[in-house]
Design brief:
heterodimer; A: mainly alpha; 9 helices; 65% helix; B: mainly alpha; binds zinc ion
């Protein structure tokens, strides 16, 4: 929790007056509940990057990830009146996010081509690839790097759904197994073994790159 | 502690997310198998770092605001619709009553009727809300154009 909060705090450009100091997210959310619009804005600023990135790693599509992240905040806003401070705000936020991401994955499973992981890499519209921006690499190095990145994305994507969500939350959202257990409504020991198995699978499947 | 208990702690240890207890530390020092596993997980995590984060686009907030406003407008329209139907029905029946009175030629009992300014559109009216919704649709069309621009930006911005 502290790590997500501090990570998110660091990217809050302008903390809203009177809000940032001393309030937990749950307390801020209770202010949203009673109609404080600036409190909602504060939470959006604090967690938008985390939400966009969570959705990006779940959907592998930049445009979709923004839509889904916005949908998370819309749902938070819609259900503000039913928010109970007993639920940790980030747990609640990530539950909304994981539900949306799972629904999106299920809705798009049929329309998705075999290898959806390469959706934006290289981009079919612009013909560009994501890591050509690094001018210090030779063409060969860039190719190797691109292959490695594609492998990482493919192997994460290929994990069973819960392992995938757990790894994304653990590796990229810096959540510990207690928080992940809360979000996924699993026991801590189930979450520990879920994560261990996921990293084991990734290690085996990515061994050529390690 | 047994090796399998230690191993399940390794992902959090490798990520630096939880403090290492002296007991765990001692086990890892004494057990090459667990130490090796910890090193494997560290290397795997370092590799996963290559998949870098995405910055939210500059339009994220504007679009979220637009979606919130659109939703508020829809809610308001729905609410107005519910109370306006009975109100319209009442107004209509009164107009019919007045019309019938006029038809009967019983002018003395008819109060002066002002024409209803239906085309006067103020915010908060059902017709005004519908116009606001239309404007939102136009706004959305603009955002679709921005989406296309953004995808290109993301492609170059994200390694
Ligand atoms: Zn051991």
């Amino acid at each position: 929790m502290t790590s997500i909060a501090s990570q998110a705090q660091a990217e809050t450009a302008t903390p809203l007056p009177g809000l940032a100091e001393g309030l937990t997210d749950a307390e801020v959310m209770l202010r949203v509940k009673v109609g404080d619009e600036s409190a909602f804005e504060y939470l959006v600023q604090k967690y938008r990057r985390a939400m966009v990135n969570f959705m990006y790693r779940m959907s592998h599509n930049a445009a979709v990830s923004e839509d889904l992240a916005q949908e998370v905040f819309l749902r938070v806003y819609r259900s503000r009146s039913s928010y109970e401070a007993s639920a940790k705000f980030t747990t609640w936020l990530y539950r909304v996010a994981t539900n949306l991401a799972m629904n999106h994955a299920r809705d798009t499973r049929q329309e998705r081509p075999e290898n959806m992981v390469s959706l934006d890499e290289p981009n079919t519209e612009t013909g560009t690839t994501m890591d050509v921006a690094d001018g210090s690499l030779t063409a060969e190095e860039a190719l190797v790097r691109r292959e490695r990145l594609a492998a990482i994305r493919n192997k994460v994507q290929a994990l069973p759904e819960r392992q995938r969500m757990a790894v994304i939350m653990h590796k990229y959202q810096q959540m510990d197994y207690r928080q992940i257990a809360d979000v996924l409504k699993l026991s801590e020991s189930a979450t520990k073994s879920l994560l261990f198995r996921a990293y084991e699978t990734l290690r085996q499947q990515l061994k050529d790159f390690i | 502690m047994k090796c399998n208990q230690i191993r399940e702690l390794l992902p959090d240890l490798a990520a630096g997310l939880n403090a290492v207890t002296p007991e765990t530390q001692e086990h890892i020092r004494a057990c090459p198998a667990c130490a090796g596993k910890l090193e494997d997980i560290r290397k795997t995590m370092a590799l996963l770092d290559e998949w870098q984060a995405l910055e939210p686009s500059p339009y994220f907030d504007v679009r979220l605001q637009a979606r919130l406003r659109e939703e508020a407008a829809q809610l308001r329209a729905g609410w107005l619709h519910r109370i306006r139907i009975p109100a319209l029905a009442l107004a209509l029946s009164m107009m019919i009553a007045v019309g019938v009175g006029l038809f009967r030629g019983d002018r003395s009992k008819v109060p002066p009727v002002r024409p209803v300014a239906l085309e006067k559109l103020e915010p908060g009216t059902a017709v005004g809300d519908l116009q606001a919704l239309d404007k939102n649709h136009e706004l959305y069309a603009d955002f679709d154009v921005l989406d296309d621009l953004e995808v290109q930006q993301d492609v170059t911005a994200n390694p």
